[in-house]
Amino acid sequence: MFKIKKKKLFIPIIILVLTAFLALIGYISIIFLGHYVIDEKKLILHASSKIVDQNGDEVASLYTENREPVSINEIPKEVREAFIAVEDKRFYEHHGIDVKSVGRAVYRDILAGGKVEGGSTITQQLAKNIFLTHDKTFLRKTKEVIIAINLERDYSKDKLLEMYLNQLYFGHGVYGIQAASHYYFNKEVKDLTVSEGAVLAAIPKAPSTYSPVLHPDKSKERRDTILGMMNDQGYISAKEAVSAQGRTLGLNVKKQSETPWFDSYIDLVIEEAEDKYSISGEQLLQGGFTIKVPLDSKLQKTAYQVMKQVSYYPGTDQNAEGSAVFINNKTGGVEAAIGGRDYTSKGYNRVTAARQPGSTFKPLAVYGPAMQEKKFKPYSLLKDELQSYDDYTPKNYDSQYEGEVTMSDAITYSKNAPAVWTLNEIGVETGKSYLKANGIDIPDEGLALALGGLEKGVSPLQLAGAFHTFAANGTYTEPYFISSIKDEDGETIAEHKEEGKRVFSKQTSWNMTRMLQQVVKKGTATSGTYHGDLAGKTGSTSYTGVSGATKDAWFAGYTPKITGAVWMGYDKTDQSHYLKGGSAYSTRLFKDILTQAGETGSVFTKPKNVKELESPIKLEPVKMLKADYTFKAAGLFTIELKWDAQEDDRAVYRIYVNKDGKETLLDSVEGKGNYEIPYANLFSGASYKIVPYNTQTKREGEGTDYVQPKLFSS
């Protein structure tokens, strides 16, 4: 009996010893692995990223000034407690892993049938944020636990909390609690109240959702929740909690940027890194990257300064907005982008905001496709008549109609009726297919798209990208903001690859360039002064609420080096906010930006194997015709016809003869004002007339009446 009891006692002892041994081995392993995976250098908060322009010069450091490490002693006790209350209430009790919190989280996840609650301690969050990726894998979680235990072993609780508060992301490009205090409250962290501390403690869980700037109601709600938790956990009294909950957020946001002209461009760089290269904004801001961009710093700063001038904006007040974007013709890289006259970081970026493009759409949706499809040429005659298409009746802005106009003139003087007629001739789907090939994919199906009447509109970036196709000899390249990204070790982790695709032929593009030059020289884009070759198109949309009011004013165009688009208007147009002028203002703004940036003097060069587009032939009426019989040698009579020749020697003159009531085309001559008919019959009774003919339009002009030759005219 005694032996049996000894045996029964021996087994648990063995199990206990084995468990203790395995636990010891596990602990030693954790310690060993922890030292293996912990890189002490990562605990040093030095990883600011920098942006360098096309010349390699640093133009911005991504929020280095916003990470200002502070000692734990500079952070008020109540502020620290706010973070502990919401993130890890047993922070000072556990050793890196809170078993109770983990158990509660697992239990609630099981009840909910999915993950609803996290069990991570502050130490675990620190481990994850500094040493690990955000991948939700078992291996990552295991590493997180190992690192957390070792951090607790190597550092004091206060030091861990200090590191945690210094590395947290607080939204709006702000990292660390000191920088957050400066940004949101314009004060040192040591001067924060318990209410302000709770506001900051609310943000890291979801920086966008709980931003006190973007969502003050949600921020206040979560702040009040945290204050309640602090009361529940004994950090503050009920009276203190109620008093703090009754306060406003107390924000005093200071947007301090040493180089505000770069802000909108930087935001677009961050957006492209996220969308195109799957590198989050958080990673960029703390990853120590070197980001090379196609930015022209001088052009960017000039555009920013010029656009702030009130004189360019014919608004009902001084708050009319504008945006501008400029693209390098060779690379497709964006050299400048201004998202607003007073743009602030992470603000509403009008470079990518959709607006109605107006007549700037005509070359893209109508005339370019019409030429490319070989259905029309630059001097083809288009119908210019007041005409209805079912329930749609486009009207010319001046209500004047010529019956027929050349494509060149239709573009130059921005006539609406010919544009819609032409789109109807080539088909809406044809026009849309070319728009899509140029980076503009729209759902619209009606003929109104010929005039830029769209459901949602297009952005200045999209419009500039599409016009860039003409500047690039018919090849579309998606505009880009990032040339390359290198990590801390200098290794290239992302790089722009040029992927141009042919949309228009070189001939079509050259023809369009020459026609758009005429818009600038004598058409709707004559406003302002620019020295050098410039091709472009104006556009405007009306605000129907007020007679004569303009909603959107545009100019999109290109020089031999740069393509750009300028928009101006109000974010919301209404009875009190609208433009009193149109595209003349945006055109002048475009020209002045390039002029003041020194982007002048270049000349378009015709590509090889491309025919030059002749200047238009303008026929004048031929009103005077002199017809005489003259006597030549050998007793022959000759009819001499003389008329006033045109200055343009490309004009062709058709000679018609009328004999016995029958009209016949006798001959044609080019550039001359005379014609001889030998072996004339004095008694034929024939009469003659001269009619000018335009070889470009294939149309006759106004000619003379029929004249009978005279014998021996004095």
UniProtKB/TrEMBL annotation:
Cellular component per GO? outer membrane-bounded periplasmic space
Reactions catalysed according to its record: [GlcNAc-(1->4)-Mur2Ac(oyl-L-Ala-gamma-D-Glu-L-Lys-D-Ala-D-Ala)](n)-di-trans,octa-cis-undecaprenyl diphosphate + beta-D-GlcNAc-(1->4)-Mur2Ac(oyl-L-Ala-gamma-D-Glu-L-Lys-D-Ala-D-Ala)-di-trans,octa-cis-undecaprenyl diphosphate = [GlcNAc-(1->4)-Mur2Ac(oyl-L-Ala-gamma-D-Glu-L-Lys-D-Ala-D-Ala)](n+1)-di-trans,octa-cis-undecaprenyl diphosphate + di-trans,octa-cis-undecaprenyl diphosphate + H(+); Preferential cleavage: (Ac)2-L-Lys-D-Ala-|-D-Ala. Also transpeptidation of peptidyl-alanyl moieties that are N-acyl substituents of D-alanine
Q: What's an example Gene Ontology biological process for this entry?
A: cell wall organization
- Which keywords are on file for this protein? Carboxypeptidase, Cell membrane, Cell shape, Cell wall biogenesis/degradation, Glycosyltransferase, Hydrolase, Membrane, Multifunctional enzyme, Peptidoglycan synthesis, Protease, Transferase, Transmembrane, Transmembrane helix
- The segment(s) forming the Glycosyl transferase family domain are 57-230
Gene Ontology MF annotations: penicillin binding; peptidoglycan glycosyltransferase activity; serine-type D-Ala-D-Ala carboxypeptidase activity
Q: Which intervals hold domain Penicillin-binding protein transpeptidase?
A: 322-594
Q: Which family does it belong to?
A: In the C-terminal section; belongs to the transpeptidase family. In the N-terminal section; belongs to the glycosyltransferase 51 family.
Protein's recorded name: Penicillin-binding protein 1
Task: Identify the species of origin.
Answer: Bacillus spizizenii (strain ATCC 23059 / NRRL B-14472 / W23)
Gene (name only): pbpF
